[in-house]
Amino acid sequence: MILLRLCRLALLSLVLPIQPADANQIRIKDLVEFDGVRGNDLVGYGLVVGLNGTGDGLRNAPFTEEIMTNILERLGVNVTGEQFRPKNVAAVFVTGSLPPFARAGGQIDVTVSAIGDASSLLGGTLVMTPLNAADGQIYAVAQGTIIAGGAAAEGDAASVVQGVPTAGVIPSGARVEREIEFALGSLSSLRLALREPDFTTAGRIESAINARFGRGVAVMMDSGTVQLDISGTRARSPAHALAAIENIRIDPERKARVVVDQRSGTIVMGQDVRISRIAVSQGGLTLRVRETPVVAQPNPFAPGETLVVPRTDADIEEEPGIGLAEVAPGTTLSEVIAGLNALGVAPRDMIDILKSIKAAGALHAEFVVR
């Protein structure tokens, strides 16, 4: 009998996998940003060549002709006073982000976007373009073949466009030429900035770090900042201390929030959203107006003139909705949504009901409409 019970328990453990105790815990690195450890935006102005007749019209984009003239003159080609109107070039903005601790010689991705009246960048090649940061210094140089995410085709009487062929990317298309100095090894303290400021989450981060390294290493400054004393971690370097801190797991606290997308009818909610006692009644009216004008004209060879007599049919119909329904206190929003779905309420009507519940003060959550 004992052997049979053990076999049953073993079989049950195979069918039902045991969830780890910290399945809902999140690493600190996924909740915070380390102060000073961030990327820097880069931007440049360049020229794309090799387009199949889909470039800028130089009469409408004189800046394209100007940059093309400057590039040719730097290459030793004198075009002063010449009239040239190629259709295979386009002026573009080149943007990218320099990651933290990027070293000279490294490569980053860049995005290329047309700024003139070019219809497509498909098949184009970006000519060497310096990328500047906010301080005006050049930190990278971009060049390469553009991968555009759209397609365009046209004939004599029609054209079709799918996606956005006037913008594309160059994977690893920029090479880092200048490094941003950041002396991480000399820091004795560092701040953690929470992506979603919350006092409870900041307090749990403080407690978890102090439990690992000792009391006083982490101090919560406010809902979005935790101060670290790196010297108190007794790590070999600040980098080693941050490597150990960022993998500590905690259970973050989340705000009760409802996000509604009116364009697609999507409703996303958290598990802590609650609704107070409230009664809901929903219905709708449909107005229809139809115009059917009638043309009245005289008989042949009879005096008179042709008239257009308007005829309008208008009616109002009341669509069936949900009757008066009472929501018990402490009910979760997910239960209300499930009930509305069971009644066949459309997503648009459901969004209107949620707005009305929020306006009545019965929806205890942050309500975000996009």
TrEMBL record:
Biological process according to GO: bacterial-type flagellum-dependent cell motility
Keywords: Bacterial flagellum, Cell projection, Cilium, Flagellum, Periplasm, Signal
Signal peptide stretch: 1-23
Location of this chain's protein in the cell: Bacterial flagellum basal body
GO-annotated molecular function: structural molecule activity
A GO cellular-component term linked to this record: outer membrane-bounded periplasmic space
Predominant location category: other
Domain of life, source organism: Bacteria
Sequence similarity: Belongs to the FlgI family.
Complex formation: The basal body constitutes a major portion of the flagellar organelle and consists of four rings (L,P,S, and M) mounted on a central rod.
Main function: Assembles around the rod to form the L-ring and probably protects the motor/basal body from shearing forces during rotation.
Name of the protein in question: Flagellar P-ring protein
